[in-house]
Amino acid sequence: MAGISYIRLRGFIRKEVLQIRRDPSSLLLGIVMPVILLLIFGYGVSLEPTNVPIALVIDEASPATQELKARFQLSRYFRPVTVHSIPEAVLLMESNHVDGIVHIRSNFSSLMEAGEEAPIQLILNGIDANRARIVEGYIQNAIGMWSERFALQTGRSYAPPVVIEPRIWFNAAANSTYSLIPGLLTLIMTLIGTQLTALVIAREWERGTMEALLSTPISSDEILLGKLVPYYVLGMIGMALSIILGVFLFEVPLRGSLFVLVLLGSIFLIASLGLGLFISSAARIQFVAAMGSVLSAFLPAFFLSGLMFDLKSTPEAIQYISTIIPAKYFVTITQTLFLAGNVWSVLLPASLVLLVMCVVLVVAARKKLGRRLPQ
Question: Is pTM, for the whole model, over 0.85?
Answer without folding.
Answer: no
